[in-house]
Amino acid sequence: MSENKYYFPSRIVEVLNVPFTIKLATKNYDRITQDIFHQTCFSIEKDLAQIVDGVYPFRTDSLIRKLQSGSIDPLLDYDTFQSIFAQAKLADEMTGAKVEGNLEIENDSSGLIKGWIIEKVFEKNLRPLLNNSEISGVSLTSGGDMKVATRKGADFYWEIGIKDPNDFQGIATGYYLKNGSVATSEMIDDQNDISKIKQVTIFSAGLIDADVWAKTGISAGIKKFSQMIWKSKLTGILFDQEEGEIPFKNGILKQA
């Protein structure tokens, strides 16, 4: 989208074997910008560790495990946990699946916890960097979840590649995005007769919302999800087993 040359320093931080990729876009990757990037990566790694070992320690004594065992203490004691649980219940109602029973990051079928982590870390550590005129864009990604932002007035766009569900090494299409969240959900059981949708990608302002809708699309099936797309004015792309690639924008489904 721009002829300007950009540098893209990036680093992968792993938490419980889940990789989080931190990336900047800058026209001038000098010593000062390098120091900013390294310090930011250090802070993000520290915050991720605190989340895992603190309020959300994904262990046998975690809030999620306590909730699964029947205790309501996590809902009474932690406001943020109440928020995520509410989102999980919303996903339950949309999909008919039990999302909140499987929120641990190691097997994150809902993406809600991971999405919340990305949102929290992004807003604290990455978005403030856009106040620096040398930094054009910031990004935090993990699996099918991505959060990006661009400095106001910058001519930079993030290139978002949508993988081909029929070719794990291939890219089906691409988008340009300045600000927002992207979530992708894939059909795990290809023998599922309820849904013929193989993959759904949702673009939204908030990552948790994008995660909920992406998972909903996989579970709902093409007919029901098409109605949801229209009613909720969703933007993204889905891959149907019979119809192929179907992009949609603000609720309108289009030809590929």
Automatic annotation (TrEMBL):
InterPro entries xref list: ApbE (IPR024932), ApbE-like_sf (IPR003374)
Keyword Transferase carried by entry: yes
Keywords, ordered alphabetically: Transferase
GO MF annotation: an example: transferase activity
Superkingdom of origin: Bacteria
UniProt cross-references to Pfam families, sorted A to Z: ApbE
Name listed for the protein in its UniProt record: FAD:protein FMN transferase
Protein species of origin: Companilactobacillus keshanensis
